[in-house]
Design brief:
Blueprint (H helix, E strand, L loop, with lengths): L22 E3 L4 E3 L2 E4 L2 E3 L2 E3 L2 E4 L1 E4 L4 E14 L2 E13 L4 E3 L2 E8 L4 E3 L2 E3 L36
Parallel strand pairs: 1-4, 2-5, 3-6, 4-7, 5-8, 6-8, 7-8, 8-9, 9-10, 9-11, 10-12, 11-13
Amino acid sequence: MFKRRAEPAPKLDVVPTQMRVTSILGENTSWKGDLTGKGGIRIEGLFEGNINLEGLIIVDRKGRVESELIKAETVIVGGSVRSDIQANRVEIRSTGRVWGNVTTVLFSTEEGAYLRGEIQMEEGILEEDKTDPVESDPVHPGQDKNKTELTPKKTKG
């Protein structure tokens, strides 16, 4: 008489490995060297070296990074970063301090965040540009890349 309806199993949202923290550099730990790979890292201590990560980087409010370049999908800064940053998304939290240039698609800050450097906003996903801009330019398809189009103005003197 009373039949139980088959209810669909609830869907579990699985966060991709690249967008979650898979490693932690602890508060009283320092590391010197380069970091590459996939996954996410939370830096609570001191990291010195370049970072090229397919994933998430979180610099905790007590964390410090000293580098020439940080490349990642997402960089969230709550601590101190002395480096240029290239990422699809960059967030600087209210406790975050960045000394370096930022190249990103999405950028956000909280009140109190600090940035000393330039911000360059991109329209698409950051990847190595492997095409020659002159050769692939649809407006000037046959233009010689070695030819200079600018001519100086002559001034009377």
